[in-house]
Amino acid sequence: MILRLSLGAALALTTAWPALAEMNFNRIASFATPDNMAEGEDRGRKTSAEIIAASEDGMTLVYTDSPLGAIGLVDISDAGAPKPLGTVAMGGEPTSVTVIGAKALVAVNTSADYINTSGRLAVVDLATKTELASCDLGGQPDSVARAKDGSFVAVAIENERDEELNDGALPQMPAGFVVKLSLKDGMPDCAAAQRIEMTGLADVAGDDPEPEFVDVNELGEIVVTMQENNHLVVIGADGTVASHFSAGSVDLQGVDTKKDGKIDFSGKLEGVAREPDAVRWIDADHFATANEGDWKGGSRGWTIFSKDGSVVYDSGLSFERAVAEIGHFPDKRAGKKGVEPESIEVGHFDGQTLVFVGSERGSVVGVYDVADLAAPRLLQLLPSGIGPEGYTTIPARGLLVSANETDLGADGAARAHVMLFERSAAPASYPMITSAGSDTLIGWGALSGLVADAEKPGILYGISDSFYSAAPAIFTIDATAKPARIIAATPVTRGGDAAQLLDLEGITLDGKGGFWLASEGNTAKMVPHGLLHVNAKGEIKEQIGLPPELAANEVRFGFEGVAKVGDMLWMAVQREWRDDPKGMVKLVAYNTETGEWGAVHYPLEPKGAGWMGLSEITVAGDHAYVIERDNQIGAAAVVKKIFRVKLADLAPAKLGGDLPVVAKEEVRDLIPDLKATGGYVVDKVEGFAIDAAGEGFVVTDNDGVDDSSGETLFFSIGTVE
Q: Is the pTM of this model over 0.90?
């Protein structure tokens, strides 16, 4: 049985990361936006959390929800247990929000199309959830920002381009501009709205400016990004343009430039326009930009500018590489804009100025100390939900909040979330596994099977699944480090080249310095089910396909783990094959000496939503341990468990006849572990291994950051007796 550690003790074993700063942020809660729907509303409807702001007392959050055409309100008086306050319909698409006093000022896009643009600034009373006022803005708004003293708001009127028209090329009229509205007690003077023109400033499509983001400093100056124009504008307190300059470009050496099923940081890009999206003032003279790119650029980094146009700091590829080290690099976006830094926020916590850089595609936020503006220090990388769009800070309460816009629907997939992070003296709980510290950058993701070294406690070997089919690898993991560290990557090769047509889901030691690997298979994609025998260098020496009795009944969901007992290999089959009784899956046996195949049946837990299946098998002592799980995420997840079967009961019967049914014993419910970092319960608990000292380790598969938050949870469950 498992020696059950307290959750705090289990985390302390696996997640204490020596941080550069004395204080750390840790996620303490996640709020799914469908929870804000009223009783009777369709919770399967798409929702979102995009731009987010906090009330001045720091107790209420307000976020824009474009799919619902509403703003959502969340009570965070108890930050660890957010409560829904409902939504307010805005009669259009809310694009941005700020809060003054007890009023939310919301930019609302009401455009009929890309040519007939319109929008308004709405004022909503947070207590009564009623609209108090509305100002016509004369075009399609994007960002809204308030003055520090609450005396005015600035609104970027983007009048965005149609990306489907002429390949999105500029110019596309009408041109954008900025609106400045004076305020009294949070109420705008609509009649005195000031229109500030941006035309004729940028070298790129200067007659079609597209203001993207605005922010206001303590002097009342407004900084404006014009993303597609690759330009920055500073508007003086008097409402006239004080300065403007190109955002410039960068040369990138050592970058992954191809969507090709492997992480390869050997390419280069030259003259890449920064094309900044979000911008925030750091002080009265400097601001930071998140250089997402859009039309022709995307430098994958972030920059600190002086308001005179000089570059004080540029991150180059350092941010993207740090994201890759924790397994969050999105290879499917490599050919476009990589991790796509889209969001930027600045917060002043106990005298320390921090810049938060959000990666839209990597679904993480970097926390930087900018005491030295020319040399920011990366303190932490925090896990966010899928597609983080906006951030806000509440320094008085030590809080950082993220709004994550991607909603994958109600069928067991991840929903859009608001996430809260608290600053404290506790050790950082994320990442739980990283390749940082290696002599060369090891990119990784989609970890699946695990096996422990036979002699060295804390040393494990893992594999990546078919997401990285162009470069399958065996990873050596040092779980004694905190966080665990990937210290080597051994490519799996065939004839000297990277092995193709594999979906590696299981790994076990062969007892001779090499490994047996299980490939799940996908007949429709010419990927065979089977076993591979590799040496210590990862070279395939033997490949074994299914016998006719199994091949005739296989389906897409095959071997999800492999374990060795003497001469016998045992494979866990993920789901029922065509010849299995309902609710039963096979544990398949292969004798490496005689070549004989056999199997037993394993009874699954009752199926709720989605499907139920196995994800791993490992052996220790007198038992075989399996991971059994449903394919549900978040609140819909019910079964993420470790069970065990006595080895004495694993007596394989010949294929083609009736198979014996083994008895199972529950060892551990993993759902509390999966909730421990304050996020939603992830789908794929994929790997489990018991090391030479009897300690059990679990890893989740992050799907290569494709329709996934990219989080990889790696943790100990204590000693297995």
A: yes
